[in-house]
Amino acid sequence: MNVAQERVPEITSYTEMALERLQDEYARLVEQKNALELRVLKGEERRRALMHILSDLNTVNRKQAEQRKAMIHILADYEHDRSRLARQTERLDNSRRALMHILQDSYQSNLRLENSRKAMIHIMSDLKETTEEVQRREQELREKQEQLVQAGKLATLGELTTGVAHELNNPLNNIGLFIGNAIDLIELGMADTDQQHILQELHSAMQQVRKATEIISHLRTFGRATSVSHEPVDITQVIRQAISLMQEQLRLRQIEVQLDFPADRIIVMGNAIQMEQVFINLLTNARDALNDMPHKVITIVCKAQADCVNIRFRDTGPGIPEGLDQRIFDPFFTTKDVGTGTGLGLSITYGIIKEHQGTIMVQNHEQGGALFLIQLPLNLENS
Predict the structure, then answer these.
(1) In this predicted model, what pLDDT tens digit does every residue of 201-221 receive, in sequence order?
(2) Could you give the maximum distance between any two Cα atoms of the chain, in Å?
(3) Is 120 helix (H, G, I), strand (E, B) or coil?
(4) Would you call 289 exposed, middle or buried from its count of C-beta atoms within 10 A (0-12, 13-18, 19+)?
(5) 173-185 confidence digits (pLDDT tens)
């Protein structure tokens, strides 16, 4: 019994030492856990920082790619200018060598010098007259082109007369109906008791007047002969305006028009009236091509790229006859019956697109019908 009592303090002391050691180990483990959690937090912060750095690097890479594209365009322009300058330098050098020979010959003989001087005077006179004649012819050509474009617009307006007359007839009929209702109310003695109804009829009539005015204003603007000035133009709005002029003719022929335009505006530098004439000409050609087709659809797709807009104009007609795709833009060339076409529409279209620094091509679509591919430079400042 005494031995057991003697061992109790020893066991108690050993237990306390073990508990202290366990507490020390637990505290050390807690410190290690906290240190590990701190390292994990720091690692997470470093990971987030690395993600931000990678995002910034990605942005920088995209900017560098855009700058590289711009530099390529600049280098191409520089190479073009350098080649042109080299050709001019070569021509200048040839002229200088020719002049040196002339001077040497004139130095050897005063008579040859006098003859050369007289010949030079005649050449300069002829050159001046030739230059003036060329400038006059160029001015005449520009005037004839403007007259041709104006004649094309007037011819287009003539074709649109039936559809526009129907469009004007609707608001005029509505105006007569609304005014007639107002007159009936006044004659029935309801001018004082039902003024709101009369005012509503008159306001509806004014809305129809404004609609008719918009149609007439659009036609007057399209047909007016104005100076060709270029300004920022929303090409999708121009196409919609052209369709609005042709809408009645297309509806009467049961032709469906499908549009695929982006939500954002597509701005090009050009003349809105001329561009509208381009799409009216294309719509007119497609209208005639679809005349005898069972499935009548016109599809217009606009897609903007880095520095240009691509326009795909397709119909479900018979397409372009084989071998005629190279002549389709020639003046006075037409595949229509005699008396149904002037052969000027696509020629005028080609000239307008070229004047706007663009391109236009035609080909047969793989699923049938003609496909016109138009490319115009974007006005990046307003896009």
Answers:
(1) 777 777 767 766 666 665 665
(2) 158
(3) helix
(4) buried
(5) 667 777 777 777 7
Are the CB atoms for 287 and 336 separated by under 8 Å? Answer: no
- pLDDT tens, 101-121? 887 777 777 777 788 788 888
Q: Which residue has the higher pLDDT, 105 or 157?
A: 105
What is the dihedral sign for C-alpha 244, 248, 253, 258? positive
N- to C-terminal Cα separation, the chain: 104
Report the C-alpha gap between 92 and 100 in whole angstroms.
12
The CA distance from 47 to 42, in Å, is 8
Q: How far apart are CA 272 and CA 312, in angstroms?
A: 19
292, 333 contact by CB (below 8 A): no
**Quick one: DSSP state of residue 310?**
E
| Domain layout of the chain by residue ranges | 1-108, 232-383
Beta carbons of 222 and 276 less than 8 angstroms apart? yes
pLDDT digits (tens, 9 = 90+) for 70-91: 888 888 888 888 888 888 888 8
- 3-state DSSP assignment of residue 108: helix
Q: What phi and psi values does residue 57 have, to the nearest 5 degrees?
A: -65, -40
Residues 82 and 85: their CA atoms lie apart, in Å, by: 5
Record the pTM.
0.49
Residue-wise pLDDT tens digits, 301-330: 999 988 899 999 999 998 888 767 666 776
CA distance 261 to 304: 10
Residue 365, classified by CB atoms within 10 Å of its CB into exposed (0-12), middle (13-18) or buried (19+), is middle
Report the mean per-residue pLDDT for the chain: 79
Separation in Å, CA 159 to CA 156, 165, 196, 298: 5, 11, 43, 19
Task: Give residues with Cβ within 8 angstroms of 377, minimum separation 6.
Answer: 268, 269, 307, 308, 356, 357, 358
Identify the DSSP state of 343. S
pLDDT of residue 339: 44
Count of alpha carbons within 13 angstroms of residue 182, beta-carbon side: 17
Task: Note the CATH architecture for domain 232-383.
Answer: 2-Layer Sandwich (3.30)
Q: Per DSSP, what are the bridge partners of residue 372?
A: 313, 362
What percentage of residues in the chain have a pLDDT greater than 70? 76
